[in-house]
Design a protein that fits this description.
Layout: E1 30-38, E2 46-55, E3 62-65, E4 74-81, E5 95-98, E6 110-115, H1 126-132, E7 138-141, H2 175-186, H3 189-197, E8 199-202, E9 213-214, E10 217-218, H4 223-226, H5 229-243, E11 268-272, E12 276-280, H6 297-307, H7 313-316, H8 320-336, H9 346-358, E13 363-367, H10 380-389, H11 393-406, E14 423-425, E15 440-442, H12 445-460, H13 473-482, E16 489-493, E17 499-505, E18 511-517, H14 526-529, H15 535-545, E19 549-553, E20 557-564, E21 568-576, E22 588-596, E23 609-611, E24 639-641, E25 648-652, H16 660-668, E26 677-682
Parallel strand pairs: 6-7, 7-8, 12-13, 13-16, 16-18, 24-26
Antiparallel strand pairs: 1-2, 1-4, 3-25, 4-5, 6-20, 9-10, 11-12, 14-15, 17-18, 17-19, 20-21, 21-22, 22-23, 25-26
Helix pairs in contact: 1-3, 2-5, 6-8, 6-12, 9-13, 10-11, 10-15
């Protein structure tokens, strides 16, 4: 992304006067706006300003490209509706942002946060609010910024923390649906707070479009009932660019020449002086081959066990199922190594190669969607051995008993004992399961069979997720070939809803990159699928099954916080203790991992080194934020500020906002977006 602060030529925003002013009725062409930028929050000296229109053709969103700002400088900005006074809701709160450093300038330090997987109905966005108190250069979102599902799906009505408020209530399929879904998310006051506090760099994952998409379809797209895939994909991508901070180019289909549009080719780079080059990859829509060809792996293992009448781990050894599972593993290993399985595509990989070969910065950073390191399922038997090796015999005994109870071994266990039937005890903090925490109940056959299958898969080392890079081995090798000129590459990933850190190895087994994979803001992970096993046992099982994995956390939600210098990459996993209630200012660091600048070949000893938590301080919560009230406190006329990296202002949902009566009327006409005044500022990267 171009550091606009380093470019000359002060210019105003794009776009001319609107066809309709504030107070225009629903369906009007647009509303006339003005924006201002200042070094100070009181706007004593306005450095840049202009007018532009938010038009109906772009869902009442507008972008202004601000030039002539100084590099790596803190600025403040605000929006207004022409002709309306501040007291009438015509002037927004004040947002802030830092411009990018000038290309090649010395930058001693960089601090930023990384987020993924923020499902509106699974919980509250407390992670956003707490991060808003930090003094960040920018924040990054690596996908699943929204979820396309309806309120009858993930989560179900009985599981939802926020059972009401999702719009539309059905799955997003059309352009109007996606626009309305972004509007719903953008109303959230905690997302607004972070968006107003610092710059955003974002890329989509799958749920901005549909579950597990690829070039010619998606796991969750049904052509018979949901229409043509290309039409849906274009609608999702268009809404993304309307509501997110991207510098769009070109037009969608030539029918609306006034609509700037980038399309699916969203990969781009950002440069932070001499310190770091950040590349954002696109791995969903441009080149990906079908990730949905392999049926649910644990289900396949369960079928093989049932076919051989294997009902416990003791029955598995020497059974017909043992050879069947070995054959399944061989088939899956061959499949994931097919040369024609593509994820990023040749054009994008060659672009990545050119960026990394030309990089003159100390670090090369790669933001993308799915886990890149090799990841096998948790080896639950290995977890027991791990506990014993670490002198934790009491834990080992508890874990062994729990595993025996759940895999047909019996033996009572926690809550059981003596001749009592096997029991399962609940540990998951997933909101709808939280009331069961600490309670125990008899093991049921269905759960026992699924845990048995997962345990066997973990013991046999069967790869279980073919949607991530482990399902595209040759493509991962091609990517690592493209970045091999860099000895200091860090990968940031999302998608899995849990936290992982480890190394990524090339085709020769050498360490090619280090990976920090983030947990989610709200979406549940393995803590939901394995709620009756101690989380630390599952973590230990992942570490036992994956020797290149340094950190695993399948229990907590939150975000990742990074502090980068020329000699050290310091990463902290920040935990948001609760997301089923609004709880601000309670986040804490659960794990810190350091990577050090490598002068030459990397050795196994300097890969990821545990360190001390340093950057989330008590005084963090003292920082005053702009006022963004929760929905039940929201004034009839209000603004939401969102900003991004350099000089792209994005005003979201601007139009007349005359009060509750008008709001309710517009709800009926499906122009809810027109009520919300929502601001974002960002900078897209260098031309590809």
């Amino acid at each position: 992304v171009a550091p606009v602060g380093a470019r000359g030529g002060r210019g105003g925003g794009r776009g001319g006067p609107g066809a309709a002013g504030a107070g225009a009725p629903p369906g009007a062409e647009g509303v006339e706006l003005f924006w201002e930028v200042s070094r100070t929050a009181d706007f004593a000296e306005v450095l840049a300003s202009d007018r532009l229109s938010a038009r109906a053709s772009s869902d009442f969103t507008a972008k202004a490209d601000v030039r002539g700002l100084d590099p790596r400088t803190l600025y403040h900005f605000r929006w207004g509706v022409v002709g309306e006074a501040a007291g009438a809701g015509g002037l927004s709160p004040v947002g802030r942002f830092k411009t990018l450093p000038a290309r090649g300038a010395h930058v001693p330090r960089l601090e930023f946060a990384v987020f993924s997987c923020s499902n509106f109905r699974w919980g509250y966005f407390n992670a956003y609010r707490d991060a808003a108190h930090l003094d960040l250069e920018f924040w990054m979102h690596v996908g699943d910024f929204i979820y396309e599902m309806g309120e009858d799906a993930y989560p179900s009505p009985a599981q939802a923390v926020r059972p009401r408020g999702l719009r539309p209530t059905h799955e997003a399929v059309t352009l109007g649906d996606y626009r309305e879904r972004y509007a719903t998310y953008r109303e959230d006051p905690d997302l607004q707070a972070l968006s107003a506090a610092s710059a955003l760099i974002a890329v989509w994952d799958d749920h901005e479009i549909a579950d597990n998409p690829w070039v010619h379809g998606a796991n969750a797209h049904q052509p018979e009932t949901e229409g043509d895939w290309e039409v849906r994909k274009a609608a999702a991508v268009r809404a993304y660019h309307e509501w997110m901070p991207t510098r769009s180019r070109g037009t969608l289909d030539g029918s609306d020449a006034a609509l700037p549009f980038l399309g699916p080719k969203i990969y781009r780079k950002f440069e932070f002086g001499d310190l770091a080059t950040l590349v954002m990859l696109e791995t969903r829509l441009l080149a990906r081959t079908d990730p949905n060809e392999i049926p649910y792996v644990f289900g396949q293992v369960a079928q093989l066990l049932a076919k051989a009448n294997v009902t416990s781990l003791e029955d598995f050894d020497g059974s017909a199922a043992e050879q069947d599972v070995a054959n399944l593993r061989a088939t899956l290993e061959a499949y994931r190594r097919h040369d024609d399985k593509v994820l990023a595509g040749h054009e994008q990989l060659e672009w990545v190669r050119s960026v990394f070969e030309g990089s003159q910065t100390s670090w090369n950073l790669l933001g993308q969607q799915t886990i890149m390191q090799e990841q096998r399922p948790s080896d639950l038997e290995g977890a027991v051995d791990w506990a014993r090796r670490h002198g934790r015999d009491a834990d080992a005994d508890l874990w062994a008993s729990a595993l025996a109870n759940l895999t047909g071994g019996g033996g009572g266990g926690a809550g059981g004992g003596g001749g009592d039937p096997p029991t399962m005890c609940f540990y998951s903090q997933t909101p709808y399961l939280r009331p069961k925490m600490g309670s125990c109940e008899p093991v049921n056959a269905q759960l026992s069979g699924s845990v048995l299958a997962a345990t066997v898969a973990g013991r046999e080392g069967i790869t279980y997720n073919y949607d991530q890079w482990s399902g595209y081995v040759r493509e991962r090798e091609r990517l690592l070939d493209a970045i091999k000129s860099s000895q200091n590459t860090i990968v940031y990933s999302g998608d899995s809803h849990n936290a992982w850190a480890g190394v990524v190895r090339d085709r020769d087994g050498h360490v090619a990159a280090l990976e920090y994979a983030g947990t989610s803001v709200t979406s549940p992970g393995t803590e939901r699928s394995l709620p009756v096993l101690p989380p630390e046992m599952v973590r230990a099982g992942y570490l036992a099954a994956n020797p290149d994995m340094e950190h695993a956390d399948n229990e907590h939600k939150g975000f990742m916080l990074f502090n980068l210098t020329h000699e050290r990459h310091h990463g902290e996993y920040i935990v948001t203790p609760r997301y089923d209630v609004r709880q601000m200012g309670h986040s804490y660091c659960s794990k810190a991992l350091n990577a050090y600048y490598t002068h030459g070949s990397r050795t196994e000893g300097d890969i990821l080194v545990p360190g001390a938590c340093e950057h989330l301080l008590e005084r963090t919560w003292e920082r005053k934020l702009p006022s963004f009230k929760h929905s039940n406190e929201q004034a009839p006329a209000g603004w939401g500020l969102v900003l991004g990296v350099g000089g792209i202002f994005l005003l979201l949902g601007a139009a007349a906002h005359k009060g509750v009566g008008m709001l309710l009327e517009w709800h009926k006409t499906k122009t809810r977006q027109a009520y919300r005044l929502h601001v974002e500022m960002a900078d897209m990267g260098d031309d590809i």
